[in-house]
Amino acid sequence: MKQTFSKEERLCSHRLIGLLFSKGNKFYLNPFRINWNRHAVEGATSVQVLMSVPKYNFHKAVSRNLIRRRMREAYRLNKQLLYDNLAGTSIQLYFSITYTSKEIVPYDQIETKIILLLQRLIEENEKVTG
């Protein structure tokens, strides 16, 4: 699998984003809040993700963009964990990652937390699958 982060992997649908925040599951893994939901649908891309950094924590766009770039890069390099787990299933998983800390943390800490986040997401998905 290519280590890219294409347009198909980004969550852009207003309907899905609304369902995600109204009826989705959530958990916290400091400094992230994760909202997630799933469908049983046949599709080309089985995972879609939305990444956000709130403006009320970081007023300058430069800071928000820096954190978002670090989050995207960490996800791009480690998304294989999630794709390997969902291979061969007809489940579409979509989730959002919201950065909740008020400080800018270094990339290595963000990458470590993204790996833990993906592992926890796999566990939560398996609990629901039962």
Describe the structure.
This protein has 130 residues and is an alpha+beta fold. The protein has one domain (7-120): Ribosomal Protein S5, domain 2. It is built from 4 helices and 4 strands; from the N terminus they run αβββααβα. Strands 1-2-4-3 form a 4-stranded mixed β-sheet, with helices on both faces. Helix 2 crosses helix 4 (107-129). It is globular, with a radius of gyration of 14 Å. The protein starts with 13 loop residues before the first helix and ends with a helix. The mean pLDDT is 91.
Reconstruct the topology from this structure.
Blueprint: H1 14-23, E1 25-29, E2 32-40, E3 47-52, H2 61-78, H3 80-86, E4 91-99, H4 107-129
Parallel strand pairs: 3-4
Antiparallel strand pairs: 1-2, 2-4
